[in-house]
Write a structure and sequence with these properties.
209 residues; alpha+beta; SH3 type barrels; Molybdopterin biosynthesis moea protein, domain 2; eight-stranded mixed beta sheet
């Protein structure tokens, strides 16, 4: 198990090239799987360029370097259906804001999130994560009983049922400001899929008649 703080500010080095590729700046969580998907790094060649490495391409996480087989695995950043953890707000399903995410602990081989720590000092078990959308992480804190876990798992299905068939009352845009769901659209499974991929499911939920 590793913590996000162990990666931040650490150089990534390719073993094939023996060269540093950049410094890790952030971690990306996949909104659908709720697992760590990749790391974001600032390029060693251009400080204004940001790159991405899939977590599966990480060979080792040490105190001095994060290693990868080859720097060829590093690609341009693509945040489709992903969310960086920096400044993500953690919200309980009851509606209480628990704070901003300060650190996550995860299994480096699978990306599975073990726990989340907020800047208020609260530590939340990874199994309590319900959904991620639009810079927010929604969690359930009722415990880890089978009944509670089943409730968390059914949350997204209930959310989908709530949205299906309703009418969108405002244009929904992605991070680039592009309209991806037009006002007047009747919500279908495809509409929900588009919102999930763009990370704007919460926006869609708030703009329904």
């Amino acid at each position: 198990m590793k913590k996000s703080s162990q990666l931040m500010g650490i150089q990534l080095i390719g073993m094939k090239e023996g060269a540093e590729c950049g410094v890790i700046q952030d971690i990306v969580i996949d909104q659908q799987t709720k697992k760590v998907r990749s790391v974001i790094l600032r390029s060693a060649k251009n400080e204004y360029e940001f790159l991405e490495l899939q977590i599966g391409d990480v060979l080792g996480i040490g105190k001095d370097y994060v290693t990868t087989k080859s720097n060829d695995a590093v690609k341009k950043v693509d945040l489709k259906n992903g969310m960086t953890i920096m400044s993500v707000k953690c919200i309980d399903s009851s509606g209480d804001v628990l704070g901003d995410i300060e650190e996550i602990a995860f299994e480096e081989k699978t990306g599975e999130i073990v726990s989340v720590k907020t800047d208020s000092g609260m530590e939340i078990d990874g199994s309590n994560i319900i959904s991620l959308s639009n810079g927010r992480m929604f969690v359930g804190l009722e415990g880890s009983t089978a009944a509670d876990q089943q409730k968390n798992e059914s949350f997204e299905e209930e959310q989908r049922e709530f949205m299906l068939g309703r009418t969108v009352n405002a244009d929904i845009t992605n991070e680039a400001g592009e309209v991806i769901i037009e006002k007047g659209t009747t919500v279908t499974e495809e509409t929900i899929r588009l919102a999930e991929e763009a990370g704007v499911t919460v926006d869609l939920t708030l703009c329904l008649d």
